[in-house]
Amino acid sequence: MKQRTLVVISSGLSQPSSTRLLADQLAASAVGAAARLGVTLDVQVVELRDLAHEITDNMLTGFAKPALKQAQDAVAAADALIVVTPVFSASYSGLFKSFFDVLEKDVLTDKPVMMAATAGTARHSLVLEHALRPLFAYLRAAILPTSVFAASDDWGANSVEGPLRGRIERAATELAREVERREPATVTDPFALTENFEDMIKNL
Amino acid sequence: MQFGIFSVSDITTDPTTGRTPTEAQRIKDIVTIAKHAEQAGLDVFALGEHHNEPFFSSSPTTTLAYIAAQTTTLQLSTATTLITTNDPVKIAEDFAMLQHLADGRVDLMLGRGNTGPVYPWFGKDIRAGIPLALENYGLLHKLWREHVVDWEGKFRTPLQSFTSTPRPLDDVPPFVWHGSIRSPQIAEQAAYYGDGFFANHIFWPASHTERMVGLYRQRFEHYGHGSADQAIVGLGGQVFMRRNSQDAVKEFRPYFDNAPVYGHGPSLEDFTRETPLTVGSPQQVIDRTLGFREYVGDYQRQLWLMDHAGLPLKTVLEQLDILGEEVVPVLRKEFASLKPAHVPDAPTHASLLAARSEKKEEVQA
Lengths: 204, 365
Fold this sequence. Notes:
The structure holds 2 protein chains of 2 kinds. Chain A is of the alpha/beta class. Chain A is built from 7 helices and 7 strands, in the order βαβααββαβαββαα. Chain A has one domain: Rossmann fold (3-Layer(aba) Sandwich), CATH 3.40.50. In chain A, strands 1, 2, 3, 4, 5, 6 and 7 form a 7-stranded mixed beta sheet that branches. In chain A, a hairpin with a 2-residue loop joins strand 3 (80-88) and strand 4 (91-92). Chain B has a single domain (2-364), classed as Alpha-Beta Barrel (TIM Barrel). Chain B has helices spanning 23-39, 60-69, 88-101, 118-121, 129-143, 184-193, 206-222, 245-257, 268-274, 282-296, 313-338, 349-364, and strands spanning 2-7, 44-47, 75-78, 81-82, 107-111, 149-151, 159-162, 175-179, 196-199, 233-241, 278-280, 301-305. In chain B, strands 1, 2, 3, 4, 5, 8, 9, 10, 11 and 12 form a 10-stranded parallel beta sheet that branches. In chain B, strand 9 (196-199), helix 7 and strand 10 form a beta-alpha-beta unit. The longest helix of chain B has 26 residues, at 313-338. Chain B is globular and about 60 Å long. The chains are: A alpha/beta, B alpha/beta. Chain B: InterPro entries: Bact_Lucif_Oxidored, LLM_FMN-dep_put, Luciferase-like_dom, Luciferase-like_sf.
């Protein structure tokens, strides 16, 4: 079995939150789908609520304190991400955006990212297309074709095997295939010298 | 080892009184602070360069020349001189001039400047910060070492048969430090030339400084200037001291909480844990400063930021006295006893002049 890492970013505020609920279902399905392809996914969940103060401090000071640094390092080293946000005022939550604002430049480049969102009503579902997709496209992530939206209706008593289940499985399968066909993620060291002095002068 | 202070020349409201010094007052205060630093037994005064409010120091060599005239031993430096937006020709002229007036008590620290809007005011682009620093310093280095310069580059009009005047004092260019917090290219540049590397160690975790200094030392050796532990390293720092550490914390907290750069963010306790900021007793400052050596090795220059965030002049002068009486004498002794003999001191005009004469004799022999 190949070993790969999956980091799940959840930015729900209440506990328990439907955002975390969706995040857990996506992660569990991804683990199952990956196992069927011979990949063991090691999952780490990052609850942004726990890092809210450190995220703000990072914005003001320019560096991350230990818990946030650990989360940022995990993201940089991850083979894939699942990112889940509640819809606030017709977009991702400010906390969700802030986490990506203080992330080191380029760490998401070509990293498989599954996007997901939750809201009270299905009328917000296009937030995935008009807010999250441009954000992760800008960050040059390898966005999975299927993104997952869950409204309150989807958590209803009669929807356990409903349409949401199908979307989760489809997205999880895409993520598993993407992780399976790729080399393990490599982390670039921001303090490493990439060219020597003579080359820097040559390439001015 | 050299100990001193640096000022970024901010004009900040004192949060405990609501009073903001005028530019006129603050400029005179800086002169008082520099003179007091010498009287208190410190070695270096370094002044920043800014071209935007709330800072006053747009022309550091003017201020430093005025201070030079009123001091006798104080080494005058900058923190930093903008190598990106200044014309390197003007830097060559200004600092050679200052060097003559100050009898050689001059070095300078180059920095790129991180204030985006300033670049276009000088016809430059912040995205070209590193290339500007590389090309401009290449020219500055040449102007101080070659009498007649022909030069062509990307960012400045070409030079034909140009001689920068006055020539450096005794034909010994001022020593140059390259300051950077997290750009490995600048550590590489400093190493390539065998110049000093200054890590402004405040506001940032020690792990950044450790990586940058480590890279600089390794590349210094690679370029054949000496062994890695002979590279010339300087650190910035920030302290606030009172006899009882609780008094220091209580007095400094409002200045910390409202300070430009880090104010309204992390708590004082968090920040002192995560960065080299030390607020406490003189002994705590001594212990913390000695600890820097454990991750950067034996280093040559320690500068502290003292007059920041609206602290009144009286308080700043008291802080200089504490440094001079209780902290620096102990640090001098401790650092000296730890430093191996083959690790050099920070270069001065006298030491560079002596080194050149030695080299000449070697060539003749």
